[in-house]
Specification:
Layout lengths: L1 H14 L1 H4 L13 E3 L3 H5 L10 E6 L5 H17 L2 E6 L6 H13 L4 E4 L8 H10 L3 E4 L9 E4 L2 H15 L4 E7 L5 H17 L2 E8 L4 H14 L5 E4 L2 H13 L7 E6 L2 H8 L5 E4 L2 H16 L7 E3 L3 E4 L3 H4 L4 H9 L2
Parallel strand pairs: 1-12, 2-3, 2-4, 4-5, 5-6, 6-12, 7-8, 7-9, 9-10, 10-11
Antiparallel strand pairs: 11-13
Helix pairs in contact: 4-12, 5-6, 7-8, 9-10
Pfam family, one: Peripla_BP_4
Protein name: Substrate-binding domain-containing protein
Family: Belongs to the bacterial solute-binding protein 2 family.
Length: 346
């Protein structure tokens, strides 16, 4: 299996070389050609008339994580609004890179008119991107891992997730202290950027010591184990930043198991419902919500505009917000119009 995976990824790099030559490798956080989600209509005009026979395929990392289920809900909301068909599929787990590639390639073979992809790594869907390019089928990379040669990306500024959490620590611990990071999957752009934003912001402050930064591969169990070890080694730790909420909830369990809840703050990223519930109970300190339902709706609008012949910015930025007990109730609203209004005012 490992040999097959290496062979497939090597082929991906070769087959994508022609297309990659026409575009610089995408770094979604720093790409200057970008438009905020609130500016799509003012910059590009009203949504063009949509052909109701269109079929759009969505390819997610996994559906075991609520974030990706909510992203699919956003796709479905937009598909219903525009009267088109959407198929949303995902790999069995976040390590099934070849399975995810197979899903993307099958959707292309089935005649879908566009793909919305959320890759497991920065390279595992490159063969599907190349196949889509050869057929003239638009592809939009939606959040998380970033395929370097992709033409369009929709998502938040990943580095800002970590920056926002670091600023919270600076404001609430003016004397600094020891902190740790529970990273996502090694080599994934989003995980690296989230960690870098947190680390660099605290380093600039000069009062905090990052005592550990270890991967837990998006796993709650691995995060629990990693946090337990770190707490044993550094019993005076004041806080953790986990690259997603699933891992953050595992960290909360470890903190509570060692009776450190009053001492050690824990933050995650994503804004899943379990994280909101934990925040409201006073367990998880906070999360950075990237609003997956809204992101899915924006991504669908972007690909439909592209299919209709519009040339958009390479990156369309979607919103995020630091959520704590103070604002969790307001941002957990189910009123989509109200949420959009709140986010547009940030």
């Amino acid at each position: 299996m490992k040999k097959c995976l290496l062979s497939a990824l090597a082929s991906a790099l070769l087959c994508s070389s022609v297309y990659a030559a026409t575009l610089p490798p995408l770094k979604s956080d720093s790409e200057p050609d970008r438009t905020d989600w609130t500016q799509l209509e003012s910059k590009y005009g009203a949504m063009p008339k949509v052909d109701k026979t269109l079929k759009i395929g969505g390819v997610a990392k996994t559906l075991t994580n609520e974030y990706w289920r909510l992203l699919g809900e956003g796709y479905q909301n937009a598909a219903k609004k525009y009267g088109i068909t959407v198929a949303y599929q995902a790999a069995a787990n976040e390590d099934d890179q070849l399975g995810q590639l197979s899903i993307a390639e099958t959707l292309l073979e089935q005649g879908f008119n566009g793909l919305l992809i959320s890759p497991q790594t920065d390279i595992n869907l490159e063969p599907a991107l190349e196949a889509a390019n050869s057929k003239g089928i638009p592809v939009v990379n939606v959040n998380d891992a970033v395929v370097p040669g992709v033409r369009y990306y929709v998502g938040n500024v990943q580095k800002d997730n970590g920056v926002r959490v670091a600023k919270w620590f600076i404001a609430h611990y003016p004397n600094g202290g020891k902190v740790a990071v529970i990273e996502g999957q090694p080599g994934v752009y989003a995980a690296g950027q989230r960690t870098a934003g947190f680390r660099e912001t605290l380093q600039a402050n000069g009062k905090f010591t990052l005592v550990a930064s270890v991967p837990a591969n998006w796993s709650r169990e691995q995060a629990y184990n990693a946090a337990s070890t770190i707490l044993q080694q550094h019993p005076d730790l004041i806080g953790f930043y986990a690259n997603n909420d699933t891992m953050a909830l595992g960290v909360v369990e470890a903190v509570r198991a060692q009776n450190k809840a009053k001492q050690t703050a824990v933050f995650g990223t994503d804004g899943i419902s379990d994280a909101y519930a934990s925040i409201k109970r006073g367990e998880l300190t906070g999360t950075v919500d990237s609003f997956p339902v809204l992101t899915g709706e924006v991504a669908m609008e972007v690909i439909l505009r592209v299919i209709n012949g519009q040339t958009l910015s390479r990156v369309v930025s979607t919103p995020q917000a630091l959520i704590t007990k103070e604002n969790a109730e307001a941002f957990s609203t189910k009123d989509n119009a109200r949420l959009r209004q709140l986010l547009a005012q940030q």
